[in-house]
Amino acid sequence: MPLVNGLSVDVEDWFQVGAFEDVIERDQWSGLDDRVDRNVRQILDLFDAAAARATFFTLGWVAQRHGPLLLEIARRGHEIASHGWDHQRVFRMNPASFAADIARTRKVLEDASGTSVIGYRAPSFSIDARTPWAHQVLAEEGYSYSSSVAPVVHDHYGWPEASRFAFKPVEGSNFIELPVTTAIFRGKRLAAGGGGFFRVLPYAFSRWAIRQVNRTDRRPAVFYFHPWEIDPGQPRVAGAPLRSRLRHYTNLERMSGKLEHLVRDFHWGRMDGVAKRENLRLRLERAVQG
Ligand SMILES: [Zn+2]
To answer: Ligand 1 mean position to 60 CA, how many Å?
Structure first.
């Protein structure tokens, strides 16, 4: 049976990305052009065409304003999970404020979608060596899995010492972390599960990386993208660093086409399913090792 990879969408609008947070204040958000609803509906159609299921890690801020959208995502068979309230990075919070953030977000997501929320993705993959308490807090707040670690060196994020594949960060608990996919290229780890790697480089690189993970490592890949990445018509943010702007706006018009290939070339499913299967695999490995 082929491996089922984890497909995910981080549901936030064009003005909520980490790269622009020094330019656009949170209190300006509600006055800006709201494009997330339309972009997510386009993604739902793209997934339906390939019979792919996915997890939508959604901001509480978005869920509060787009209840019908959350119902529609759930109605089409996808998982609703948490991306935190307003994209505050975990290492900017303490255990108490983090607990409050994920509890508040979960309540709004569950009320809007009518489904239970068990998964979490940290804004900008911000669970790293600075936040050793974060997984414990997630487990205590009733979450079952997280996909919040990028086990690479990167200019905005990364925890290069972390495992490339599923691990159990909380002793005595089934809580599981599913790091975003990396590939090994010339002995180095590359972030290969989405972001600039997917949008800026030719699709062949991503196909090669996911195949490497499935065939050589025999593990499911974890892939992510954002609704704004399929939206070439989004407003341009002036004043952000050139490097951020280059990365944000490159190949937006090609993204939908690339995604159509991606969803057809591999088997994709929800992250809660990946968490379940990886949990079972880790348990079996442990049993074999005695
Ligand atoms: Zn995000």
So the answer is: 12
Q: What is the pLDDT of residue 22?
A: 86
Tell me the sheet residues that pair with 194. 224
Amino acid (1-letter code) at residue 91: F
pLDDT value at 98 more than 70? yes
| Distance between start and end Cα atoms, the chain | 27
Interatomic CA distance for residues 43 and 95, integer angstroms: 34
**Helix 67-75 vs helix 95-113: angle between axes, to the nearest 10 degrees?**
70
Please tell me the predicted confidence (pLDDT) of residue 1.
61
Six token digits for residue 6: 């984890």
User: How much distance in Å is there from the Cα of 264 to the middle of ligand 1?
Assistant: 25
Ligand 1 centroid, distance to 89 Cα (angstroms): 9
Q: Show Cβ contacts of residue 15 under 8 Å, excluding neighbours closer than 6 positions.
A: 24, 28, 29, 32, 237
**What is the torsion angle, in degrees rounded to the nearest 10, for the CA atoms of residue 181, residue 38, residue 54 and residue 91?**
50
